[in-house]
UniProtKB/TrEMBL annotation:
Entry annotated with the keyword Lyase: yes
Gene Ontology BP terms: iron import into cell
InterPro entries, A to Z: Dimeric_a/b-barrel, Dyp_perox_C, Dyp_perox_N, Dyp_peroxidase, EfeB/EfeN, TAT_signal
Cofactor(s) in the UniProt record: heme b
Protein name: Deferrochelatase
SUPFAM superfamilies (alphabetical): Dimeric alpha+beta barrel
Location in the cell: Cell envelope
Domain Dyp-type peroxidase N-terminal: 81-225
């Protein structure tokens, strides 16, 4: 979970607890972002309301007063990259880049070195080390995370084909696909998340400027979630269909969490540079909200297999109650319909397939006829995308009641290496192998 940052002006003697200051008070005193945190670490949809790997990252561990949001900090260096196991963030940007013609391994290494240095500074609440835009002046880190991944084409462009993991083979076609190839894939992928919109945009702008002549943006998408502290107590998030989304996400406390989500350091068929990394499947999923909202609440619940009010399974209980798939009503019909999204996506119905789902909602305006362009920026993490996302999506292709209310419009698969050690940059073990 994010750490609390320590402002330059306060010492351990002044505050032995190390508690973060009230950022609103700092703002009133005119303390800038640079001064405030200058030394604090300087150096399915599978949709989910229901489903299969649908929690952990969906609700914070405790309610967060809004006045403290700016002080929350995630760490850049570590075993895994940031932005995977942290809780959902209020604002996100997903952006893919293609290397420019003539840019190869040397340019890519320089780019990842620049990006890593910038991410480390911004996540610590500092300004970028050159040409900072001051967009986030006066703000703390606000749980900012920046995550980097490599697409299939990156390896041929850098002459590293022999280091490309087999798990990065292109995803198969699915019946719900209506993919815009110009908004899919990419050589490099960056995920940015924060609990403050200006902090998130500041990071997006810094990353884009750092790309320089080495890479150009291929596509970029913006998303959001409910802000921490917006509810009276911690709750699993809701999506734009109004459904509780994330009930059965794998949790780090589970004994097989790392096995399902991260590539092991040894004993894996993946190349060594992917140790402690993960694979991100990214899908822009349009929700056909006009059609969905014509359904009665009861009909919506039958599509999902869970109550809309509290996320509990239709078989009874609370949100976390195990679903009874064999329960029938007085007419002998299954209480959880055979085509319900929750039934189809259960891990025990998919060979144990599991993903850590960490999405953002999106809204990109309205079509000429008033149809909303809105839905889910679906991001899921797994050690093996063939056993995770592909297994579940193939099952959904064969009869998910939700499929008529969604449309997959963009797609990407990215190899996300493990975290960078202190003094390293992300991807160094690949690019300097």
């Amino acid at each position: 979970m994010p750490e609390k940052s320590v402002p330059r002006a306060r010492t351990a003697a002044a505050d032995a607890s190390g508690a973060a200051p009230d950022t609103a008070e700092n703002a009133r005193e005119g303390v800038s972002r640079r001064r405030l945190l200058g030394t604090a670490g300087a150096t399915g949809l599978v949709l989910g309301a229901a489903g299969a790997a649908a929690g952990y990252a969906s609700a914070p561990a405790a309610a967060t007063p809004l006045t403290s949001l700016g002080a929350d900090r995630a760490m850049f260096h570590g075993k895994h990259q940031p932005g995977i196991t942290e809780g959902l963030q209020a604002k996100g940007h997903l952006v893919a880049f293609d290397l420019t013609p003539g840019a190869g391994r040397t340019q890519a290494a320089s780019l990842l070195r620049r990006w890593s240095a910038t991410a480390e500074r911004l996540m610590a609440g500092e300004a970028a080390d050159h040409d900072d835009t001051d967009v986030a002046r006066d703000a703390g880190p606000s749980s900012l995370t920046v995550t980097f991944g490599f697409g299939h084409g990156f390896f041929s462009r850098t002459g590293l084909e022999k280091q490309r993991p087999a798990s990065l083979d292109p995803l198969p076609d699915f019946s719900s696909d209506h993919l815009d190839r110009s908004r899919s894939d990419g050589d490099l992928w960056v995920q940015i998340g924060a609990d403050d919109a200006l902090v998130a945009f500041h990071a997006l702008r810094a990353i884009q400027k750092d790309a320089g002549d080495a890479a150009r943006i291929r596509w970029q998408m913006n998303g959001f979630n409910r802000s921490p502290g917006a509810t009276a107590h911690p709750m699993t998030a809701r999506n734009l269909m109004g459904q509780i989304d994330g009930t059965r996400n794998p949790k780090p406390s589970e004994s097989d969490f790392d096995q399902r989500i991260f590539v092991p350091a040894s004993g894996s068929s993946d190349p060594a540079w992917m140790a402690n990394g993960s694979y991100a499947v990214v899908r822009r999923i349009r929700m056909l909200l006009d059609d969905w909202e014509k359904l009665s609440p009861g009909a919506q619940e039958a599509v999902i297999g869970r109550r809309k009010s509290d996320g509990a399974p239709l078989s009874g209980g609370t949100e976390t109650t195990a679903m009874d798939l064999d329960k029938v009503d007085k007419n002998g019909d299954y209480v959880v319909p055979l085509t319900a999204h929750a039934r189809i996506t259960r891990p025990d119905r998919n060979g144990g397939a599991a993903m850590l789902r960490r999405p953002f909602s999106y809204h990109d305006g309205y079509e000429a006829d008033g149809t909303p362009d809105a839905g889910l920026l679906f991001v899921c993490w797994q050690a093996d995308p063939l056993r995770g996302f592909v297994t579940v999506q193939r099952k959904l292709d064969r009869g998910d009641a939700l499929s008529k209310y969604i449309r997959h419009e963009a797609s990407g698969l990215f190899a996300v290496p493990g975290g960078a050690a202190k003094g390293e940059y992300v991807g160094q073990r690949l690019l300097e192998s």
